């Protein structure tokens, strides 16, 4: 069995990234289990699960060719760094930061973030297996994992070159704690109390109809796959919930319409994080901010006059006004 494990998974090469005897034993057990599982599933009459290859994953996520080529070159000279311990840490919210930092340490120089993206996408194949096991539709997997593609393209648009700087967030999607359903992303947070956080992707269409379609689809998603979360309250933290926006936007704006769905519980008016989203890639010198849209123009003058936008937290209302 040990010889077979070495044959099928390159044990001798990969064990170099395992630092303790316990990790080595655990990793070998995982390899043996995978071999046995594969053998059983390949028996005549056994139900075969569709496998997710890396080439297929890159294709369905529509990764830019330039990024795929760089990843391919990286893989020619590097073996996987995801030991069982790191994989386990990627599954647990309290260890995400530690896991990502350890991955960066093992990878070394990674100027554009493509190498850690490569390692995380390797792990995404296990995520796909979990989706299939739960029966979650492939479209949800694709739209959720395209989180990385969206930020690659966004970086290219803003700075003129591809880079992946969101590895710190990606464990949410990989551990099935965040899903994109329609226009919005929904995150399970199981801390002192269970909460579901709504995130607004940069490419989301904010029309009322699209929002309601997403909410309805997500309720159905919870009922089918996560019934224990059906009655959990929904929250959102965003600059879009700032009360100050009422002074900058017309009453019929989609952003204010979305804001009306929530009961604002708090606002951090000292936060300037709004600049990252309304003026991406620009310096914090307020006088030099762009005025390409009416929102940018109004917000710039509002800030120069001493106004504050901040970052607000709100609870989804049981009786929203939309």
Please tell me about this protein's structure.
The chain is an alpha+beta fold. It has four domains: 1-48, no CATH class; 51-176, no CATH class; 177-232, no CATH class; 242-314, 3-Layer(aba) Sandwich (Aminopeptidase). Helices cover 49% and strands 11% of the residues. It has 15 helices and six strands. It has helices at 2-9, 11-14, 21-41, 54-60, 65-76, 84-90, 96-107, 114-134, 138-145, 147-159, 171-174, 208-225, 254-259, 274-278, 294-304, and strands spanning 178-181, 184-190, 194-199, 234-238, 262-268, 311-316. Strands 1-2-3-4-6-5 form a six-stranded mixed β-sheet. Helix 1 packs across helix 3 and helix 5 (65-76) crosses helix 8 (114-134). It is globular, with a radius of gyration of 22 Å. Residues 1-18 and 25-47 have low confidence and may be disordered.
Topology, number of strands: 6
The outline comes out as: globular
Supply the number of helical segments.
Answer: 15
- The Rg value, from CA coordinates, equals 22 Å
Biggest beta sheet summary? 6 strands, mixed
Beta-strand content:
5-15%
| Regions with little confidence, pLDDT below 50 for 5+ residues | 1-18, 25-47
Average pLDDT level = 87
* Strands side by side in the biggest sheet: 1-2-3-4-6-5
- Give the SSE order as H and E letters: HHHHHHHHHHHEEEHEHEHHE
- The portion of residues assigned to helices is 40-55%
Q: Structural class of the helices, strands and pairings? A: alpha+beta
Tell me the domain tally: 4
What distance separates the N and C termini?
62 Å
């Amino acid at each position: 069995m040990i010889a077979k494990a070495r044959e099928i998974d390159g044990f001798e090469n990969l064990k170099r990234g395992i630092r303790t005897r316990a990790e080595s034993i655990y990793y070998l057990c995982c390899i043996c289990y995978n071999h046995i599982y594969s053998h059983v599933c390949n028996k005549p009459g056994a139900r075969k699960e569709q496998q997710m290859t890396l080439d297929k994953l890159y294709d369905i996520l529509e990764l830019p060719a330039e990024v795929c080529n760089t990843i391919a070159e990286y893989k020619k000279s590097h073996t996987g760094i995801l030991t069982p311990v790191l994989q386990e840490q990627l599954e647990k919210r309290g260890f995400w930061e530690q896991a990502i930092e350890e991955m960066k340490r093992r990878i070394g120089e990674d100027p554009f973030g493509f190498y850690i993206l490569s390692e995380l996408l390797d792990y995404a194949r296990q995520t796909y297996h979990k989706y299939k096991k739960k029966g979650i539709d492939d479209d949800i997997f694709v739209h959720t994992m395209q989180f990385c593609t969206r930020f690659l393209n966004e970086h290219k648009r803003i700075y003129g070159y591809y880079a992946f700087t969101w590895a710190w967030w990606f464990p949410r999607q990989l551990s099935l704690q965040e899903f994109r359903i329609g226009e919005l992303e929904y995150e399970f947070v199981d801390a002192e109390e269970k909460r579901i956080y709504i995130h607004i992707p940069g490419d989301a269409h904010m029309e009322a109809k699209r929002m309601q379609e997403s909410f309805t689809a997500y309720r159905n998603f919870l009922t089918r796959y996560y019934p224990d979360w059906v009655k959990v309250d929904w929250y959102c933290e965003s600059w879009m919930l700032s009360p100050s926006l009422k002074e900058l936007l017309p009453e019929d704006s989609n952003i204010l319409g979305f804001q009306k769905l929530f009961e604002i519980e708090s606002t951090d008016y000292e936060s300037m994080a709004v600049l990252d989203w309304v003026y991406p890639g620009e310096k914090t010198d307020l006088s030099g901010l762009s005025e390409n849209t009416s929102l940018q123009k109004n917000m710039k003058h509002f800030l120069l006059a001493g106004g504050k936008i901040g970052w607000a937290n709100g609870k989804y209302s049981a009786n929203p006004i939309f």
